[in-house]
Amino acid sequence: MRRLAAAILVAFTATTVAVPMAQADTPRCVSRHEYDRVTKGMTMTKVHKIFDTAGSETGLGAPNLLYHYRPCTKQGLVQVVYSPRGRMLGKSAHWFG
Fold this sequence. Notes:
The chain has helices at 2-13, 32-37, 44-51, and strands spanning 56-57, 65-69, 75-82, 88-96.
């Protein structure tokens, strides 16, 4: 749990490079509605399609994959943990502004 908390703190301060997806309703950022739509077990591809961005891997979740996404608020944090096979294991978000 401490490792996840540390990863969240590091990812919060990290810069995100986001890739826009085709016909995105909120390109390059994650809205609360999009966040609510993703569920445990979804593939990374499906999550990226819903989020309208590929986010960026932080490299801190080994052996799992920890991805950071830019929220559609002035400040905040959206993270998703994926299994090594690319299935969503969990998510967290903090919305500010």
